[in-house]
C-alpha cells in the first residue's frame, strides 16, 4: 500500500462471515445490482434476486428450458448520472451459443447467436459501449451496446474460459489453455502472450485501479501479475483447482474460490482469511460495488454471501477495528479504554490519521476526533459509495464515482477539483495525494502527468501548468510540513526512480530531481519533511531531501540506510507517523522500525530559525548525517555562519574555504550573489550582480558554468550556457570571446555549479 497510510487501513486480521446460503440446482453465476441486491442464475433456469437488507429472495423469471445460464454481467451504471444507484440490465451468456440482454425485471430484450458451443463469458467494458464474449469455439468477439457484432478480435484452437477488460477498455485479457493473452482492440497493435500456469487457466480478472491481473488454474494455483505479464505472486498449489478469482473494486483485496474453499487475499497475494464452507466448488465470485461484500456461485446449488470484517486502522495509541458491519471498536492501547462506535448503515471506508477518524457508510460521513468518541460530526454524502478517504492535518478528501470532495474536519465542504477526462473510479492512495495546501492527482489518460490543485479552492495551481515527467509515474506523495511555497512532491516512476520536485511551477520550470533508484514504496513523515522508502534490498531515509536543491554532493551524507533484505519480496510502507515507520512484508506481517528522533528535532529548530540550538543538538548527537543535514538546511536558509560550522564538522574543507572567501568579498551584492550561487541559484546570483552593474563578475559565474559545460559538452544546456556567456561578454564590451578565460580555473567555484 503506500504512503501515509493508516488511512487505507492496516488490516491485521480479516474474516469472511457467512450470512446465508440457499439451495437450488447448480448456481452458475451471480451479479450485484446494487450494494444490497444480487441476482443469481442456476441450472434450473431461474433468475433469483436476493435482497440482503430485507433478507427476501424472489424469482425474477424462469428462462426457457433450453437456456442454461453460464455467465451474468450487469451493464455499468451510467457514469455521470448521479443518484442512479441501480443498474438497469445485464447480459447473460448461455450454453446454446447465445447471449441475452435482460432487463432487471427479467424481460429478455434480445437474444443473439454468438458462438458455436457455449458462450463461456461475457463482459461489458467500463463505459458500457462494448461487450466482449468468449466461447468454447475459441473465439473472442466484440459487440456493440445493442448486441451488433463489431469484430472477431481473435480466434484460437482452444475454448476461452475467461475474459477481462483492461482499465482503459482498450485491451482485452483472455485465457488460451495455459497461456494468458492481452490483445488491444486496435488492429495490428502488439499482442502480449505468456505462459501463466501449468494447467488450463479457468479464470482471470483485471483491476482498473491497481492495473493488476489475477489468474487461476487447474494447476491449483492463483497468481498476481502486472499488466506487462510480470509475475508478482504465485500461491502454493491447493488441493483442488482454483475455480474463481475476483478483485474488490478498489483493488486492495481479492477473493479466491475453490472446492469447499473461500479465501480473502491482499493485493500482494498473501491471505487474510480462509474459510471452508460446505459449498462444493465456488465457480464465480463477485464483489458488491462498495467492496464490502462478496457472493459466490456454488456447485452444490448454494449462493454464499460473505462480508469483510475485522479490518483495522491504527494511529499512535489508537486501534480501531470494524467488528461488525455497523460497529467499530476503538481501543486506546495506553489505558486499554474501549469505545464502541455504532453506525446507522454499513461501514464502507474509514481512515484514521491526524487525530481524526473519518468513516463513510453507504449514506453518510462520520468524523470523530480522537479526543472525543461520543459526538461525531455527521453529514450526508452526495453519492453512495466512497472509494477512497485521504487525510491531511487540516482537512480530508472523499472520492466517489462522481468526484473528489474536500471537507474540513468540522464537516464544511471546501472544494472539488476537476480536470478534463477525470475518472475518479480508478483513483487510489498511490495516485492522489493531499497536504494542507495542495491536492495532487496522477492522470490516467497520460500517466506522465500530475495535476496540481490549490486545496482550499480546488483551482489548478500555476495557471494549470502541469507537472510532466519523462516517464510514466506510478506513485505520488506530497510532503506535509513547511511553507506552502516550498511544498514538494515525491514520486516513483516506471523505472523505479524516486524523484522530487516543487509543486509551485511558476516562472522558471522547477527541475525534477532524482533522489534514488530502485524505489518500490515511499512515505513522508507526518511530523516533518523526512522521506523514507524501500530501495531494492535497503530501507532508506532521506532526512532532508531538499539537500538536492542546495548541495547535491552531500546528499549521500544526509541519508540513513539499513539492510531490508529480511523483509523479503514486495514489502510496503504502511505508515510513517512520528519516528515510526510501519512496513508490511509480503507475508502480511507488520514490522515497525523506529528511526532516530534527532533529525525531526533538527527540522523543528531550523523551521523556527533556532540555529544555535541546532548546532548544539548536532554536537550532542555527534553524527555525520545530522551535520550534513544542518549544512544543507543552513545553506537553504542562507545562514552561512551555521553552514560553515556544519561543513567543517563533516570535513568539507573546500566549502568552508569558499564560505570564508565569500565573507571577504568587498560588496554586499557580490556576497549575496555568491551565497546564492552556493545554494545553486545561479540565475538569481547573476541577476543580483547585473543589477549592481557587476557584469564582469557575472561573466565569471558563467565561466564556471562553462567549465561545467565542458563536462557535458554537447548537452543542450551546455550550449545555451555558452551562448549566454558570449552575450554577456559583448555586453561587457569584450568583442571577442575570451577563450583564455574559459581555460582559467577557479577550482573553489567549480563545485558550486549545481546545474544538471
Ligand atoms: C461461472 O461458473 C460456471 C460453472 O457453473 C462456468 O461455466 C462459467 O464459466 C463461470 N462464469 C465465468 C464468467 O467464468
Ligand atoms: C496544517 O493545518 C493545521 C490545521 O489547520 C495546522 O495546525 C498546521 O500547522 C498546518 N501545517 C502546516 C505545515 O501548514
Topology overview:
Elements (H helix, E strand, L loop, with lengths): L14 E4 L8 E8 L2 E6 L3 E6 L4 E7 L6 E6 L14 E6 L3 E6 L4 E6 L5 E6 L5 E6 L3 E6 L4 E7 L7 E3 L5 E6 L2 E6 L7 E4 L5 E6 L6 E5 L4 E4 L5 E4 L9 E4 L5 E6 L2 E6 L4 E5 L6 E6 L5 E6 L4 E7 L2 E4 L2 E7 L2 E6 L4 E6 L4 E7 L2 E6 L2 E6 L2 E9 L5 E6 L3 E6 L2 E6 L4 E3 L16 E3 L3 E5 L6 E6 L12 E2 L4 E6 L9 E6 L4 E5 L10 E4 L2 E6 L6 E5 L2 E5 L4 H4 L8 E5 L8 E6 L2 E5 L5 E5 L3 H10 L3 H11 L2 H13 L3 H10 L3 H11 L4 H11 L3 H10 L3 H17 L4 H16 L7 H5 L3 H4 L6
Antiparallel strand pairs: 1-28, 2-3, 3-4, 4-5, 6-7, 7-8, 8-9, 10-11, 11-12, 12-13, 14-15, 15-16, 16-17, 18-19, 19-20, 20-21, 22-23, 23-24, 24-25, 26-27, 27-28, 29-30, 30-31, 31-32, 33-34, 34-35, 35-36, 37-38, 38-39, 39-40, 41-42, 42-43, 43-44, 45-46, 46-47, 47-48, 49-50, 50-51, 51-52, 53-54, ...
The structure holds 2-acetamido-2-deoxy-beta-D-glucopyranose (NAG) (2 copies).
Describe the structure.
- The protein is α+β, with helices and mostly antiparallel strands and 756 residues long.
- The chain contains twelve helices and 55 strands.
- It has a four-stranded antiparallel β-sheet, with no helix packed on it. The chain has a four-stranded antiparallel β-sheet with strand order 2-3-4-5, with no helix packed on it.
- Strand 18 (201-206) and strand 19 (213-217) form a beta hairpin.
- The longest helix has 17 residues, at 695-711.
- It is elongated, with a radius of gyration of 30 Å.
- The model is unreliable at 1-14, 707-719 and 735-756 (pLDDT under 50).
- One 2-acetamido-2-deoxy-beta-D-glucopyranose binds at residues 393-394, 436, 481-482.
- One 2-acetamido-2-deoxy-beta-D-glucopyranose (NAG) is lined by residues 393-394, 436, 481-482.
- Pfam families: Beta-prop_IFT80_2nd, TPR_IFT80_172, WD40.
- Residues 310-598 form the IFT80 second beta-propeller domain.
Amino acid at each position: 500500500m503506500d504512503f501515509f497510510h493508516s488511512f487505507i487501513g492496516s488490516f491485521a486480521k480479516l474474516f469472511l462471515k457467512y450470512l446465508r446460503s440457499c439451495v437450488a440446482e447448480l448456481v452458475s453465476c451471480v451479479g450485484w445490482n446494487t450494494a444490497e441486491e444480487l441476482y443469481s442464475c442456476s441450472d434450473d433456469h431461474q433468475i433469483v434476486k436476493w435482497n440482503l437488507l430485507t433478507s427476501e429472495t424472489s424469482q425474477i423469471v424462469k428462462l426457457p428450458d433450453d437456456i442454461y445460464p453460464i455467465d451474468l454481467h450487469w451493464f455499468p451504471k451510467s457514469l455521470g448520472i448521479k443518484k442512479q444507484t441501480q443498474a438497469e440490465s445485464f447480459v447473460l451468456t448461455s450454453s446454446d451459443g447465445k447471449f441475452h440482454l435482460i432487463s432487471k425485471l427479467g424481460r429478455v430484450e434480445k437474444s443473439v447467436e454468438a458462438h458455436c458451443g457455449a458462450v463461456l463469458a461475457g463482459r461489458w467494458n467500463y463505459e458500457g459501449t462494448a461487450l466482449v464474449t468468449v466461447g468454447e469455439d475459441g473465439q473472442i468477439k466484440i459487440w456493440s451496446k445493442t448486441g451488433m457484432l463489431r469484430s472477431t478480435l481473435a480466434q484460437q484452437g482452444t475454448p476461452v474460459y475467461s475474459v477481462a477488460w483492461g482499465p482503459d477498455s482498450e485491451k482485452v485479457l483472455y485465457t488460451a489453455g495455459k497461456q494468458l493473452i492481452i490483445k488491444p482492440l486496435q488492429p495490428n497493435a502488439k499482442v502480449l502472450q505468456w505462459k501463466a500456469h501449468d494447467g488450463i487457466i479457468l479464470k482471470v480478472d483485471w483491476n482498473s485501479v491497481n492495473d493488476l491481473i489475477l489468474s487461476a488454474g487447474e494447476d491449483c494455483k492463483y497468481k498476481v501479475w502486472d499488466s506487462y505479464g510480470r509475475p508478482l505472486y504465485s500461491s502454493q498449489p491447493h488441493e483442488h483447482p482454483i475455480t474463481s478469482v475476483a478483485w474488490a473494486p478498489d483493488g486492495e483485496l481479492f477473493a479466491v474460490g475453490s472446492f469447499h474453499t473461500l479465501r480473502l487475499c491482499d493485493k500482494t497475494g498473501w491471505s487474510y482469511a480462509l474459510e471452508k464452507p460446505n459449498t462444493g466448488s465456488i465457480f464465480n465470485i463477485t464483489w458488491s460495488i462498495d467492496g464490502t461484500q462478496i457472493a459466490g456461485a456454488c456447485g452444490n446449488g448454494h449462493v454464499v454471501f460473505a462480508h469483510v470484517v475485522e479490518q483495522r486502522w491504527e494511529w499512535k495509541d489508537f486501534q480501531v477495528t470494524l467488528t461488525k458491519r455497523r460497529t467499530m471498536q476503538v481501543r486506546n492501547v495506553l489505558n486499554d479504554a474501549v469505545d464502541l462506535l455504532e453506525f446507522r448503515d454499513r461501514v464502507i471506508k474509514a481512515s484514521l490519521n491526524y487525530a481524526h477518524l473519518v468513516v463513510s457508510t453507504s449514506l453518510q460521513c462520520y468524523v470523530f476526533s480522537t479526543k472525543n468518541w461520543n459526538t461525531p460530526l455527521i453529514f450526508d454524502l452526495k453519492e453512495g459509495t466512497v472509494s477512497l478517504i485521504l487525510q491531511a492535518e487540516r482537512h480530508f478528501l472523499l472520492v466517489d464515482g462522481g468526484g473528489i470532495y474536500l471537507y474540513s474536519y468540522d464537516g464544511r465542504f471546501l472544494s472539488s477539483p476537476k480536470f478534463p477526462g477525470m475518472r475518479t473510479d480508478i483513483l487510489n492512495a498511490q495516485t492522489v495525494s493531499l497536504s494542507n495546501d495542495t491536492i495532487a492527482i496522477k492522470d490516467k489518460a497520460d500517466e506522465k502527468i500530475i495535476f496540481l490543485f490549490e486545496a482550499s479552492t480546488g483551482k489548478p495551481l500555476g495557471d494549470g501548468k502541469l507537472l510532466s515527467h519523462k516517464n510514466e509515474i506510478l506513485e505520488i506523495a506530497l510532503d506535509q510540513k513547511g511553507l506552502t511555497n516550498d511544498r514538494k512532491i515525491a514520486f516513483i516512476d516506471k523505472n523505479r526512480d524516486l524523484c522530487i520536485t516543487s509543486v509551485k511551477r511558476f516562472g522558471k520550470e522547477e527541475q525534477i530531481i532524482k533522489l534514488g533508484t530502485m524505489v518500490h514504496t515511499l512515505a513522508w513523515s507526518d511530523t516533518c519533511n523526512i522521506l523514507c522508502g524501500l530501495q531494492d534490498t535497503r530501507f532508506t531515509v532521506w532526512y532532508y531531501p531538499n539537500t538536492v536543491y542546495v548541495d547535491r554532493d552531500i546528499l549521500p551524507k544526509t541519508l540513513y540506510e539499513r539492510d531490508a533484505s529480511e523483509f523479503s519480496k514486495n514489502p510496503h510502507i504502511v505508515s510513517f507517523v512520528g519516528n515510526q515507520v510501519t512496513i508490511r512484508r509480503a507475508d502480511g506481517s507488520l514490522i515497525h522500525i523506529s528511526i532516530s528522533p534527532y533529525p525531526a528535532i533538527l527540522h523543528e529548530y531550523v523551521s523556527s530559525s533556532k540555529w544555535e540550538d541546532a548546532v548544539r543538538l548536532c554536537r550532542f548527537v555527534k553524527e555525520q548525517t545530522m551535520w550534513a543535514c544542518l549544512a544543507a538546511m543552513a545553506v537553504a536558509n542562507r545562514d552561512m555562519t551555521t553552514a560553515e560550522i556544519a561543513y567543517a564538522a563533516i570535513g568539507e574543507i573546500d566549502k568552508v574555504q569558499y564560505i570564508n572567501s565569500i565573507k571577504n568579498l568587498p560588496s554586499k551584492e557580490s556576497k549575496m550573489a555568491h551565497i546564492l550561487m552556493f545554494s545553486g541559484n545561479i540565475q538569481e546570483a547573476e541577476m543580483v550582480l547585473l543589477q549592481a552593474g557587476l557584469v564582469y563578475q557575472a561573466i565569471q559565474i558563467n565561466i564556471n558554468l562553462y567549465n561545467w559545460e565542458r563536462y557535458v559538452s554537447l548537452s543542450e544546456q551546455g550550449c545555451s550556457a555558452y551562448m549566454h556567456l558570449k552575450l554577456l561578454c559583448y555586453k561587457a564590451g569584450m568583442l571577442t570571446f575570451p577563450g583564455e578565460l574559459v581555460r582559467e580555473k577557479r577550482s573553489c567555484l567549480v563545485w558550486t555549479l549545481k546545474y544538471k
